[in-house]
Specification:
The chain has nine helices and eight strands. By secondary structure, it is an alpha/beta fold.
Length: 215
């Protein structure tokens, strides 16, 4: 893996209007998002392919990795930088074999540190925990405690991503608990100014870096 997993991880909402999706994604990346995940649960296969290809062109231009949610065939078809698999969305070992070693592989582990340890063993480049807070995207998601991040950082070499209901108000406690990255959908793409929201999320990590250097 050649990409660093840190900072703001922008995850796209379900949007059928491709130009609007591209404009929002560009604003998020301009504001400092370090990774972009294409996630669209309601799109047709044809729309998914068109949107992924358009987002990849944007990400290549801005030198930000594009990760595809769940669909390994799509990730390979558009030559994306990686794949994110949900806990019930396929074999990590099989995905790693198909992706090769150059592409990023991420894994959702909900509130299970044992699953994260196994994911790392099977080749995941990062693990994602959550939901940490109530989420409008996944209202029935398992709730994970912030202490899980501290435990994970002690036991895992892989970067740790926090997801689920994350806002500018609650992200600092997850970052303080050890999250290398926060994955955000609604609080980013639902903001009145996406670029400004991305800048504010990114500033939370810049602040931690300054505090770390000073300590």
């Amino acid at each position: 893996m050649s990409h660093e997993i840190s900072g703001l991880y922008a995850v796209t909402p379900d949007v059928s209007d491709t130009p609007a999706l591209l404009a929002a994604a560009e604003a998020a990346l301009a504001g400092g998002a370090r990774l972009l995940q294409y996630r669209n649960k309601s799109a047709t296969s044809a729309l998914r392919f068109a949107q992924a290809r358009a987002l990849l062109a944007l990400c290549r231009k801005l030198r930000v990795p594009l990760i595809i949610n769940d669909h390994i065939d799509l990730a390979l078809a558009v030559d994306a930088d990686g794949l994110h698999l949900g806990a019930e969305d396929g074999s990590l070992a099989a995905a790693r074999e198909r992706l090769g070693t150059a592409r990023i592989l991420g894994a959702s582990c909900h509130d299970r540190l044992d699953h994260a340890l196994e994911a790392e063993r099977l080749g995941a480049d990062y693990v994602a925990f959550g939901s940490f807070f109530p989420s409008s995207v996944k209202p029935g998601a398992v709730c994970a405690p912030p202490a899980l991040l501290r435990n994970a950082k002690r036991q895992l070499a892989a970067p740790v991503v926090a997801i689920g209901g994350i806002t500018l108000d609650n992200a600092p406690q997850l970052i303080a608990a050890g999250a290398d990255s926060v994955a955000v959908i609604t609080a980013l793409f639902g903001a009145a100014d996406v670029k400004l929201a991305a800048r504010r999320f990114s500033a939370l990590f810049s602040r931690r870096e300054l505090e770390t250097r000073a300590s």
